[in-house]
Amino acid sequence: MQGVLGFCRAGFEAELAAELTEYGAQAGISGYARAERGAGHALFLLTESDSPGLERKHSAPPLIFSRQSLELMAELTELDTRDRISPILAGVANRAGRFGDLVVTHPDSDTGKPLSGLARALGNALRPALVKAGILSKTTDAARPTLHVVLLGGAHILLAQSPPSDTPSWPGGIPRLRLLREAPSRSALKLEEAILVLLSARERDAWLKPGMRAADLGAAPGGWSWVLARHHLRVTALDNGPLAESAHATGLIDHVRADGFTWHPPRPLDWVVCDMVEQPRRVAELMANWLVQGWSRRALFNLKLPMKKRWAETRLCLDLMTDRCGPQLRWRGRQLYHDREEITLFADLGG
Q1: Is the distance from CB of 126 to CB of 88 less than 8 angstroms?
Q2: In this structure, are residues 226 and 233 in contact, taking their beta carbons and an 8 Å threshold?
Q3: Is 112 left (phi over 0), alpha (psi -120 to 50) or beta?
Q4: pLDDT tens string 134-189
Q5: Which helix (H) or strand (E) segment is 312 a member of?
Q6: Partners of 345 in the beta sheet?
Q7: Average pLDDT, rounded, for the chain
Q8: Is the Cα torsion angle 187, 191, 196, 201 positive or negative in sign?
Q9: Alpha-carbon distance 46 to 3, whole Å?
Q10: Residue 58 pLDDT exceeds 70
Q11: Within 10 Å of residue 285's Cβ, how many Cβ atoms?
């Protein structure tokens, strides 16, 4: 078995399957998607055994609806629950010395969460067995791939791997972020996660410097403005509603009571961010206009998706932005752990 395993928010398996299918077709890869509603993951299975993994072959941006994408190696079913280790060892026996780390996890779903205790116990027992077999390094080696053992049930396991450059800090794409007491709203976690997921460490250092300026459209109560201020950016917060006292207390946020759809800055800014509850295509048009007009160098924004045809709406918004901005548009998107019925996008015009 070869293919891609993607973890997603429970209920968005169909969207991830559609995205995998589209990108597979664009890359000329023969395969099909497999997904079950509520499972918290989707698979893209290759029908040609010698085909490379979907994301390895195709240079498209990382999958939006996948919190974490892995290269699928094997599916183990009807396991003897008294001995899960032997079939796992057999499944990776031809990869001696390959792996530098081990992650034993489960999907973030109603059926997956009860497996957390088993995942911990299996990981504790499996690690020394893999080391003894020469499959896993004795100490963590970031230069080697990571082996992922994914529990779908007590007798059902997926074996997957992630290359060194793609190994995320958070198994399953689930971050461990803490909401500070002074945060104006829980949406602050959304922007914190977006900055960590959608920007590289080098980009964060270069693009979030003290003294840079940003606009937050539809800012109230100020969660996103507060996060930017914590990065020492000067923020113009646009909203007719009030901001939380903790937002004002930063001393870096200027509250302007105005309509985020009509206001624009007197001079170019470094960032525009937007988390307005609006039709997604209207927000996409707004962000594209900000970039094309040169009002901001970069945009980071949220699109609230409809209940149905969510992948179709996502594709429409991306096409709309590409048509407006031209081929120089660069974007990255993700349905973050702290997103709900929505996705978060970063965009700029390159350079």
Answers
A1: yes
A2: no
A3: alpha
A4: 999 999 998 999 999 999 999 999 999 998 865 567 889 999 899 999 999 999 99
A5: helix 310-325
A6: 301, 333
A7: 93
A8: negative
A9: 5
A10: no
A11: 16
Residue 96 predicted with pLDDT over 80: no
DSSP string of 157-203?
EEEEEE-GGG--SSGGG-------TT-SSTHHHHHHHHHHHHS-HHH
Catalytically annotated residues: 304
CB 162 within 8 A of CB 148: yes
Any idea how long the chain is?
351
3-state secondary structure of 8: coil
Count other C-beta atoms under 10 Å from residue 42's C-beta: 28
Q: Which two tokens stand for residue 162?
A: 């992630």
E strand or H helix that includes residue 234? strand 234-238
pLDDT at 27 > cutoff 90: no
Mean pLDDT across 102-126: 97
Give all domains of the chain, ordered by start, each with its CATH number: 3-173 (3.30.2300.20), 187-348 (3.40.50.150)
The sign of the torsion formed by the CA atoms of 93, 95, 101, 103 equals negative
Name the one residue in this structure whose structure tokens are 């929505």. 342
What 3-state DSSP class applies to 335? coil
**Which residue shows structure tokens 């977006």?**
194
Amino acid letter for position 251: G
Encoded tokens for 161:
């791997």
Structure-block tokens of residue 99: 């792996």
Identify which of 197, 225, 193, 215 has the alpha carbon closest to the alpha carbon of residue 298. 215
Question: Residue 235: which H helix or E strand, with range?
Answer: strand 234-238
DSSP 25: H
User: What would the two tokens of residue 62 be?
Assistant: 């990382």
